[in-house]
UniProtKB/TrEMBL annotation:
GO terms for molecular function: electron transfer activity; iron ion binding. Keywords: Electron transport, Iron, Metal-binding, Transport. This is Rubredoxin. It comes from Desulfobacca acetoxidans (strain ATCC 700848 / DSM 11109 / ASRB2). Rubredoxin is a small nonheme, iron protein lacking acid-labile sulfide. Its single Fe, chelated to 4 Cys, functions as an electron acceptor and may also stabilize the conformation of the molecule. Signal peptide: none annotated. InterPro entries: Rubredoxin-like_dom (IPR024934), Rubredoxin_dom (IPR024935), Rubredoxin_ET (IPR050526), Rubredoxin_Fe_BS (IPR018527). Belongs to the rubredoxin family.
Length: 63
């Protein structure tokens, strides 16, 4: 698992998917090492299908 400050979490109810750049998104064909900021604008959460606007950084999470 990557560093928390590089991860982003989906904020929709009943989802909570965490995008980890060290893992990428296999379903969305996003390679490992892709920062959240560099994801395509049309990228969707692989669990619930919402866009990037519904994600918030995990800054300040327990390390």
């Amino acid at each position: 698992m990557g560093k928390f400050e590089n991860m982003w979490q989906c904020q929709t109810a009943n989802c909570g998917y965490i995008y980890d750049p060290e893992r990428g998104d296999k379903k969305g064909k996003i390679p490992k090492g892709t920062r959240f900021e560099d994801l395509p604008e049309d990228w969707k959460c692989p669990l619930c299908g919402v866009g990037k606007a519904f994600f918030k950084p995990l800054v300040g999470a327990a390390a």
